[in-house]
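Fill-in record for 3-hydroxyacyl-CoA dehydrogenase NAD-binding domain-containing protein.
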Amino acid sequence: MKPPVRAAAVVGAGAIGVSWVELLTRHDIPVVVADPDPAAADRVRKSLGDQAGVTFVTDPARAVADADIVFEAGPERLDVKQELFARMDAAAPLDTLLTSSSSGFTPTNIQARCAHPERVLVAHPFNPPDLVPLVEVVGGTRTAGAAIERTVDILAALGKEPVRLHRELPGHVANRLQAALWREAYYLVQEGVVSVADLDRAIASGPGLRWALLGPIATQHLSGGEGGLRHVLEHLGPPMVAWWADLGEPTFDAALIDRLVSGVEDEVGGREEALRESRDHALRELLTLKARAGLQEDQ
């Protein structure tokens, strides 16, 4: 399915922005990249090569002037995003979709200074966006339903798996789920229950494998046999409630940060680039396998 996009803009050429550019150019969509950093163009070219159809500017207003959709991936600071969206809103055609990749800010706050907030929304990808299918889509109090639907359609045509949120929350959905896991993970490390390396191993070699295929609720359902999720909740739910009551609240201080950093350096120190390349290769293989198994739409 060819994406219904003539041209796109990516504002911010950090890791997320570059990954958006890679995804768009893969679908032969002309992209204007805006970033005030003079080195941004070299950074994009280093990652993508000399891609045809990519233009570089420093002014976001120029970038959005002829775009059907904009993917903002600037600094995660609300004041910066509000100013940036006000400028883009003043320059972009009225039918241009203005989306933010913000990992935590709500679209209502982002669109606060826009004259046309009806086309402003969050389309939060997971890093790297050119590989990981998930994009969380959520509108603000003044976002039009039609803008959300158009964004979902475009993302689906780009091979993404958009998840529409029906309520704004700081951190959206997936980051809140991650934060819940990280809170208990940090607590367990802080309490000396487990090392950083063994904690990572416990997830990557256990529940993480199943969650990558079906997600936590569907996995629970399958584990219940013929009774499914109802059996699991009725028979194993009460012990789980007891575990909830015993979950910890780590003290997020310098000592915890040092302990976590030291632990992960012992685990992967010096191998980061090789691990990143191996991870991305494995992600591609996993997505192919999921599509072949009927667990993932073919990318």
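KEY FINDING: The longest strand covers residues 120-125.
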